[in-house]
Fold:
Amino acid sequence: MSKKIIDGIMGVCVADALGLPVQFIDRETLSKNPVVRMMGHGTFNMPAGTWSDDSSLTLCLMDSLSNGLDYEDIMKKFIKWYDKGDYTPFGRAFDIGGTTSDSMERFLRGKPPLECGGKGERDNGNGSLMRILPILFHLDSIYGDKLSETSEAYDIIHSVSSLTHAHKRSQMACGIYISIASLILRGADLEEAVRQGIDKAMEYYRSLPEYNSELSHYERIEEDGFAQLDESQIRSSGYVVYTLEAAIWCLLNTRSYRDCILKAVNLGEDTDTVGAVAGGLAGLYYGCDNIPKEWLATIARREFIEELCSKLEQHKLDISDTSRYIDNKNKIC
Structure:
């Protein structure tokens, strides 16, 4: 199994589970009694190691991509989660965001997949950003180190976001996130991956007039002093821009997976999703071996998560083999 797939996906799931029990608790309260370990019960009264919709939808996307990119199939797997509790720790979907729920209902009423996502200003929650990471592995198999410079790759990222969140601001957050993740995947130094990932994505969005009105929302992460901002200037609500900012800030201000995720979760408010978004990048960079063993040991359905990672890895290998075959056929001797 590609270690990078399980690094990133387990990074999401563990951070999600760490943040879930304290979701909606404010920062001041957490500062007095911070999260320092995997806990149970709390906000949703679930056992320790329970992950939420963040991980469930990530796993849905990963499972679908194991058979290739098919937007209809992705939505069908989302519906299995939404209606039947598939891809959940205990057979029941919970903590479903409004924009995501609305998109599921549109699909059930017969809307085409790419027309289901919310397009309004108020549809810019973090519900597509939290589940976007698996598309990295699919796109890397096709575009390699050119991913963050290729318009077709961004089009696919935007389409995957648009299944639930179709506003350009949400699409941009996903594009920036995958651009950073692609450089981490390729072995770049952490600060370099963040800086170049943001720069490459923003260069792309500046070239498209339809994104001009959205550029200002991501100005802060481009600033040289962003990492030095005081914690009081970092917000951690469910708004997609704040979630992306918080995840990047936590990543730049820590030096381990453990410290990154504890910092993210203890920001308060949307703790599971800020954790999950930070966790995907931190998992990719530090590796699953550096996730605390006691956290991993607690994760619900860990073998199921690993099995889905293995399926996606096999698909990646199949794509790579096909690409090499086509390249060899097209060689001029």
